[in-house]
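Allow me, if you will, to draw on your knowledge of protein folds for a short while. A protein sequence and the structure tokens that stand for its backbone fold form the material at issue. I would ask you to consider whether the tokens describe a fold that such a sequence might reasonably adopt. Thank you for your consideration; the sequence and its tokens are set out here:
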Amino acid sequence: MTGSVLITGGAGFIGSHLADELLRHGYRVRVLDSLIPQVHGPDAVRPAYLHPDVELVKGDVRDPDAVRRALVGTHAVFHLAAMVGVGQSMYEIERYTSVNNTGTAVLLEAMVQAGGDRKLVVASSMSIYGEGRYLDGQGRVYDQVQRPLEQLKSARWEPCGAEGEPLSPMPTPEEKVPTLASVYALSKYDQERMSIIVGNSYRIPVVALRFFNVYGTRQALSNPYTGVLAIFASRLLNGNSPRIYEDGLQQRDFVSVHDVTRACRLALEVDQQQAQVFNIGSGVKVNVLEVLQQLCRQLGCPQITPEITGSYRAGDIRHCFADITLARDVLGYQPRVIFQEGLAELAQWLEGQIAVDRVSEAHAELAVRGLTL
């Protein structure tokens, strides 16, 4: 399958890598992107890393006219346009809801009006799970774990069962019940479900991909609400101590952007009869403190020690890492980039980058609103 593809938000981190992946496989690529300053800097110009064969349409995904123009002549859509970040979503509620929820609604209406048989691949997020799946000592599954406020205030970070018994995190599958812990998570779940509902009603093939912690080159280093690795890199490049919430032992699944974009292409090319949802991760768990230590070694700055705050940030969860069995079985997805190799590529790219460190500013925004404990 080849043809002309639209990527909303395609001038950003994941979208630009996806454009490269699609071009390599014979697709024509058009990008719709508003080039917001928080991601692209104050000049809001076409980023140098965006492949020259990509057609860039500057416009907002909430603008029906811009979306309709961008859809003309395309055969498929990757919907990546979104405001990203748990912390910021908790106080820029209207903005996140407008871009993520309304933007998706505008895109879906335009796709329905345009007709045809365009496929839609929508970028969802592991954030919709809230806490991941857990087991107790008797092997019972816990899918709706939450940490009480009083527990967090006393710096007891690990989730417990109903009787206070310890729980063990396990890989989280797609069947796990969502537990929405932030406005960002709510908006991503809304994007996913709205796309599937409309797709089923109008016979638009839809695939939703729940990305876990994506990392790689081209991340917006001066955006303090982007991925944790980019935030760490921004601090380290400026000689500052990275800030870690809780104790740093939170477990996550870090997946290379190269694996993510390959998964996107596979989702486009899979033959499907109904809407489907897939986890896209590495299938490997690692704690946040270990990630920082490895990045420090790669950048040659092991002398910089982290600031472990011992505080909690509203919307954060303790452990969540992916069960990728379904994506392997149905999409033929297999992660190829091991974490150490991916970090080495990231570190090499970082050597030529300049980052404005706004992490303290972002932390202050949360603290003044009472969103940290």
About this structure: The mean pLDDT is 94. The radius of gyration is 20 Å. The first strand starts at residue 4 and ends at 8.
